[in-house]
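Exam revision sheet. Question 4 asks you to relate a sequence to its structure. Input first:
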Amino acid sequence: MKYVVFSVLALLMLAAGVLWTGEAYGWFGGEAATDGPKAVLGPALAGLGLAMGIVVAQNAVHRD
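Answer key, structure tokens:
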């Protein structure tokens, strides 16, 4: 059960990071606003979500 919870959390972090990055760089919604905090926090959040997803997947495969 804990693997499901952490997988969902990792997916939400990754999705939020991608959306914030896309919004900051103008991929979604038109005009870019690269000087805002979402331009800095988006890629970091996406990276942490991806790393968390990798760790959860490794632990789920290699559990005893």
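Marking note for examiners. The helical segments are 2-24, 37-61.
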